[in-house]
Amino acid sequence: MTETTYRRVNARVTGIAIAAALGGFLFGFDTAVINGGVDALAGELALSAALKGFAVSSALLGCALGAWFAGSLANRWGRVPVMLVAAVLFLVSAIGSGLAFGVVDLIVWRVIGGLGVGAASVIAPAYIAEVSPAQIRGRLGSLQQLAIVSGIFAALLSNALLAWLSGGAAEVLWLGLPAWRWMFMVAAIPAVVYGLMSLRLPESPRYLVLRGDYDKASQVLLDFTGAKDVNLKIQQIRDSLESEEKESLRDLRGSALGLRPIVWVGILLSVFQQFVGINVIFYYSTTLWRSVGFDESSALMTSVITSVINILATIVAILLVDRVGRRTLLLVGSSIMTVALGTMALAFSFAQVSGGEVELQAPWSLVALFSANLFVIGFGATWGPVVWVLLGEMFPNRVRASALAVAAAAQWIANFIVSTTFPVLSGVGLSFAYGLYALCAAGSLVFVWRKVRETKGVELEDMH
Predict the structure, then answer these.
(1) Is 173 helix (H, G, I), strand (E, B) or coil?
(2) CATH domain 1-201 topology
(3) 8 A C-beta contact, residue 336 and residue 378
(4) Do 57 and 47 contact (CB within 8 A), yes or no?
(5) pLDDT per position as a tens digit, 361-407
(6) CATH topology for 254-464?
(7) Is 1 in contact with 135 (CB distance < 8 Å)?
(8) How do residues 264-280 score in pLDDT, each as one tens digit?
(9) Cβ-based burial of 3 (10 A; exposed 0-12, middle 13-18, buried ≥19)
């Protein structure tokens, strides 16, 4: 392959990987968008504390369901049609949530959006892995996490802008509707963009071979991966699919508690990614920054800055993942997170409670602030993107979509558990909460050391 051809192929596959990764943007946007208007909508809809909490987290249950069924649907219909369905579901949810007239239909719309986000969270990494050349697959797979953190940033920024234009999330903005409703409806924009871009994507060559459409698979491989011998690659894909069919007619079933060991590795990677408490930083960051002495305005601005740090850390991961390797980055990340979370637990052991508010005095306030951002950097440069890369590539061809669906569903459930238990754990004490997350980070180090294989440069057909 000439240098010019190599660059053209890389540009093409990067383009379709970016388009597919927009599903991650919906993921991040949905994660952060409700935070800007949660208090305002709770006031207008007269929600109790319990209902407010469930309205926030109900989308995560929808995400788990969407992720669970996405794999089987992708194997039946194809990767691209499931992306389109996800875009439609998120579009409907954005408009419905913005026009909700009561808590019941708000939760229904949130769950519908969650179904779309959950499906997109499964399909994007699988699709990117299946269309990417092995030598740049890690970088392209990392685009999923970059899209997620960019979606979080975009939601925080749009929320702040709409609140500023109206004078507050509960104040009327346009057409007689308060700003918090427009915060939801703005999400229709990335949903439409994702749907339109999905229409232009080629189908995954692995799926096309699975369905016997070898001519189309050959064309995709030739146009987007730069395969030197397309016929040989097609045969390798066929051989891997046939060997998997002989190995297990029940796909994911195995001897280890009903599932294959590789599926359990994927599930535990997903669970550890959430159990280190990363979403506590993004869901409850304003509360954290106020505890270290910031006023509300400064706390909101610091949350935006933290999301920018997360984006920059993810870019670092994109640059390193195909050079350093997945396993090494995870080990480094686990070590950094363990130290950062342990230090936060130590700092908050010196906290004082005044009027129900947690307060930290210098120098521990500065220690907590530094440690929280170190934790975000450690996660953003390693576990955030690398887990998505691994989930997209570590499973054998025949079970990839289904196994990724199970692992992603586990991730959403773990996210739900962490998000809903943090208020209870912080009630016991922030030192206790962050100490528990530090133990999970230490556990992730041991798990990766003992159970996770390096997949850098390995062809998908060689994943067993």
Answers:
(1) strand
(2) Growth Hormone; Chain: A; (1.20.1250)
(3) yes
(4) no
(5) 778 778 888 888 899 899 988 998 888 888 877 887 667 767 877 88
(6) Growth Hormone; Chain: A; (1.20.1250)
(7) no
(8) 888 999 999 999 988 77
(9) exposed
